[in-house]
Amino acid sequence: MIAFAVALLPALAGALPFWLKLPPAESSFADEIDRIFRLILWITGVIFIVVEVLLVYFLIRYRHREGRRAHYTHGNNRLEVIWTIVPAIICVVLALLSRRVWADIKQRMPEDAMHLEVTAEQFAWNIRYPGPDGKLDTPDDILTLNQLHFPVGTKVVVSLHSKDVIHSFFLPEFRVKQDAVPGMTTKVWFDAAHVGNWEIACAELCGLGHYRMKGFLVAESPEDFKKWLAEQAAAGAPQPAAAAAAGGPAPTPAGAPANAPPPAPGVSPPADGKVSVPPADRTPAAAPGQEGKQPS
Ligand SMILES: [Cu+2]
């Protein structure tokens, strides 16, 4: 109980050890997640230190000595009841505290939000925006590859899919991490308080090119966003993810020259949209079967 109380103090003050700083929080719910993270870290951290100190103390105190006989004890009922009930209470309190934040972030999607579709594949992020009709999955949709732009201050609801294996849509600064599972649609939402650039990382080891599965997240002013989206629509969309899945060519990045060859399957193009020659470990001919996926 004393450990619990000691742990609560710095957590309530919002402190973290100096060597454990989280990236700057961007989304409107990031602070709530950080608060629970810090609370759990302090509670488990203080308990960890108390337990390890006691362990070392008892190891030394009751070490083997010539002529000293071991003393039999069946234990202490009162102590056992205490160290069962106290952790149980801590777990229930943490569960109740997390429950509301979880519901706000994972279960209730904001209503006044922009809707997007993100389809993960080895090793790229396909982003789908509604076209002029404002609806997704219609012929006027705008598709980009690895470029997720959105207006600052607007809530974005992403419907997450995967074409091949399990990926994980990870926005560290937004405290968003969600698995993309083949055959499932999972929704996540986020928003940004500031204009800026961040990375979309894949947080699930998804094949040999996992380390290169990087997208770009850009929050910009509503005018800049409109302009950018119009440019993407005018540049001609890359092949939709569904066509590529059905055996069509792999998507090309928006803004790539129209006559540029599409990247090899599973190769994510660089941020500038220029298609480069993939390294040997990414070409379809190399290492068949090693990535768990044959290019279709
Ligand atoms: Cu991945």
Low-confidence stretches: 239-296
The separation of the N and C termini measures 59 Å
CATH class placement of the domain at 113-250: Mainly Beta
Q: Beta fraction of the residues?
A: 15-25%
Mean pLDDT: 80
**Structural class computed from helices and strand pairing:** alpha+beta
Output the number of helix runs.
5
How would you name the oligomeric state of the polypeptide chains in this document?
Answer: single chain
- Computed Rg: 25 Å
Instruction: Report the CATH superfamily of the domain at 113-250.
Output: Cupredoxins -  blue copper proteins
Shape-level CATH architecture of the domain at 113-250: Sandwich
Characterize the main sheet.
Answer: 5 strands, mixed
Helix content: 25-40%
Main-sheet strand order equals 3-2-1-5-8
Shape: elongated
> In total, how many beta strands?
10
Account of the 3D structure:
This protein has 296 residues and is an alpha+beta fold. Among the domains are: 25-62 and 79-108; 113-250, Cupredoxins -  blue copper proteins (Immunoglobulin-like, Sandwich), CATH 2.60.40. The protein is built from 5 helices and 10 strands. The chain has helices at 2-12, 30-61, 77-107, 222-235, 241-245; strands at residues 113-121, 124-129, 142-145, 147-151, 155-162, 167-171, 176-180, 186-190, 196-202, 214-220. The strands form 2 sheets. It has a 5-stranded mixed beta sheet with strand order 3-2-1-5-8. The protein has a 5-stranded mixed beta sheet with strand order 4-10-9-6-7, with helices on one face. A hairpin with a 4-residue loop joins strand 6 and strand 7 (176-180). The longest helix is centred in the N-terminal third of the chain and has 32 residues, at 30-61. Mean pLDDT is 80; it is low at 239-296.
